[in-house]
Every structure is written in C-alpha cells, then in structure tokens.
Amino acid sequence: MSGGKGTSGRGDRKLFVRVKTARGRSVSSQNWLKRQLNDPYVQRAKDEGYRSRAAFKLLELDRQFHLLKKGARVVDLGAAPGGWTQVAAAKVGKTGKVIGIDITPVEPIPGAEIIAMDFLDDAAPDRLKEMLDGEADLVMSDMAAPATGHKPTDHLKIMALCEAALMFAREVLKPGGAFVAKVLQGGTERSLLEEMKRSFARVAHAKPPSSRADSAEMYVVATGFRRT
Fold it and tell me: Half-sphere exposure of residue 126, counting CA atoms within 13 Å on the CB side?
C-alpha cells in the first residue's frame, strides 16, 4: 500500500491500494482490479453482506423513485450475482415475491426464487410468468452483454437487452407498475424513452451516486404503467 491520503467522515485515513501483481495482466484488467480494490462501495457491500456493489444502485434508485414496497411482486432480469435480488427480497418482505433469472447460476437467496436460464431464450418469458403466477409490481433489469471495447457496439447490445426487458415488462406489469433498466449513454436511449412514454405515466433517466462517474452507465426508470 502507498499513502494516497484522504479522510472519511469519521476522520479515518484512506489508503490507495496499488496492484502489485500486474505481470501477465492486460492494462484493462489492471485498471479494473485497481478500481475494485479502491472502491468504497465494494468494501461496503462486503461489510453489509451484499453480493455486489450494485446493491447500492438499487437502494439509491428506490430512495429516489419508491420502487420497492412491502408485499410487492418483483422480477429481476440478469440477477447474478444477486445484489439487486437481495435488496428486493428484503424490501418486499415475506408477503411479497421476488423472481430472478440469469444465465449464470446464482447461489440461493432467502425470500427469492432464481432460475439459471438465458432471458433471451424463447422459453424464458413463459417460465417467468409461470413462476410469478400473477401480475408484477416491478420489473427490473441490470442486464449487460459482455463488453467488446467498441463503444457503439456495446451500446447497441445493451439497448437491445433493455428493449427485450421492456417488452416483457409490458406483458406482466399490473396497472401502476414500474420498470427500471440499465442503459448506456449514446443517443439511441432517447428513442427508447419515447417508446416507454407510450406505456408509462412518468419516464426518467437516473444515475445513482454509486454508479461510477467515469462510466457511461445510466438507468431508465418508468412508473405508472398503463396498458395501451
């Protein structure tokens, strides 16, 4: 460790952690590891028992938009490693229902049902509807395709996932329900917002404080679902 000094609200000294085992790693891998080692949200997630720092993004979105309520029925698309599912299960309580799906298997989470399946599989929507056994209050998606490093391509891929999630949300949400999904800044998200406005009373962009400032990641949040 070396002394990149800083102080927290408690007056604690923060130390910047250098990556000592850089040999054999790509520059992007080194930079990712450096961010992880020095990211306060990563440490907070460990301290508070969340499986990923992404849990704080949903907590912050919920504080702003009031998405999660006791007894709500929630579908989590792209659930792995489980941070959003943990938050949702805790918020909706025993009277609620949380269904998660991811192509990567997720360790069991109390209060949630999770299946290992590709959401883009033709059979996935019907499987989720069967598990939900009713209408949903919230459909949320933190899905992201593997990055190629080519920004236009990555943007189009994540927007395609968002559009697929929106199509599913329109099929399962109850009137007044909500939808939240990850997008990347890049221009075409504006057309997606216009499309969402046809089905929701309120649509907004949001960037939670825990989303890294240097990331193009944002979220679209739509509330007040209405069937058209």
Answer: 3
pLDDT, tens only, 183-196: 887 655 677 888 89
User: Which distant-in-sequence residues (6+ apart) come within 8 Å of 56 by Cβ?
Assistant: 41, 44, 45, 50, 208, 210
**Rg for the chain (alpha carbons), in Å?**
18
Question: What mean pLDDT do residues 200-216 have?
Answer: 87
Phi-psi region of 137 (alpha: psi -120 to 50; beta: other; left: phi over 0): alpha
Q: Which among 14, 69, 182, 207 is annotated as catalytic?
A: 182
For 50, list phi and psi in degrees, rounded to 5. -90, 150
Instruction: Quote the pTM value.
Output: 0.81
Q: What is the pLDDT of residues 135-164, one digit of tens each?
A: 999 999 999 877 777 777 877 888 899 999
Active site residue 69: no
Q: Which position has the token pair 């960037």? A: 207
Contacts of 195 (CB under 8 A, 6+ apart): 166
- C-alpha 210/C-alpha 169 separation (Å) is 25
